[in-house]
């Protein structure tokens, strides 16, 4: 069984005063609402007892209005509490909500693109620790987490643990394995409940120094 070593890190990122506040653009809701009548074009009129065309459009528009609240939970929750099986009219609410949420995330990805990779800070490399610096974009309402993987094993990316934020754009990584090759990257979490994170380019391969006393 391959051992997976866990290491602790101290993540210290600068929070710039000029950080862009990604408040939702005012046209997300209106763009969503313009699509609500189009949903009826693909319906055959069967199975819609209790929610006709006007009901569908109204429920869809309601979902468009609730999309910001859904970022903290889900469209299903904001449209119909926590029920697993949605009544038909709530289904159209969820459809509208999902449309607006997807537009929001699409816009964020356009604005952010692919961030630059973190880089090794000079004179910080040891057998079991190193420091990284990252000069990526700063956005309000987005979480930034560090990921790592072994280079020679081609392992999956894993999140670093014990992260804390401070006044400098540096990351202290500790409890590494001596003479081991790693890569690191930054993951931007757009929302705690939606969407895959945006990830930076991976760092160059960084090999820790040999451990033990010199020969």
TrEMBL record:
Q: Which SMART domains has this protein been placed in?
A: FN3 (SM00060)
Signal peptide region: 1-19
Superkingdom of the organism of origin: Eukaryota
Where does the record place a coiled coil? none
Q: Which InterPro entries match?
A: FN3_dom (IPR003961), FN3_sf (IPR036116), Ig-like_fold (IPR013783)
Boundaries of each Fibronectin type-III domain copy? 114-211
* Keywords carried by this UniProt record: Signal
Q: Which PROSITE patterns match?
A: FN3
CDD domains assigned: FN3
Please verify whether the record's keywords include S-adenosyl-L-methionine.
no
| SUPFAM superfamilies linked to this entry | Fibronectin type III
Name of the protein this chain belongs to: Fibronectin type-III domain-containing protein
């Amino acid at each position: 069984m391959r051992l997976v070593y866990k290491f602790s890190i101290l993540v210290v990122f600068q929070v710039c005063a000029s950080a862009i506040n990604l408040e939702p653009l005012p046209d997300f809701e209106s763009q969503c609402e313009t699509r609500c009548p189009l949903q009826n074009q693909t319906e055959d009129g069967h199975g819609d007892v209790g929610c006709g065309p006007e009901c569908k459009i109204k429920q869809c528009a309601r979902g468009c209005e609730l999309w910001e609240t859904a970022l903290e939970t889900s469209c299903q929750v904001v449209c119909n509490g926590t029920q697993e099986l949605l009544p038909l009219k709530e289904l159209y609410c969820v459809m509208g909500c999902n449309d607006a949420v997807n537009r929001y995330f699409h816009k964020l990805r356009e604005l952010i693109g692919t961030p630059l990779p973190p880089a090794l800070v000079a004179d910080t490399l040891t057998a079991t620790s190193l420091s990284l610096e990252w000069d990526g974009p700063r956005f309000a309402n987005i979480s930034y987490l560090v990921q790592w993987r072994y280079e020679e094993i081609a392992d999956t990316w894993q999140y670093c643990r014990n992260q804390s934020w401070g006044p400098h754009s540096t990351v202290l990584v500790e409890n590494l394995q001596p003479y081991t090759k790693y890569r690191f990257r930054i993951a931007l979490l757009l929302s705690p409940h939606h969407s895959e994170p945006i990830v930076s380019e991976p760092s160059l391969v960084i090999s820790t120094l040999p451990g033990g006393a010199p020969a």
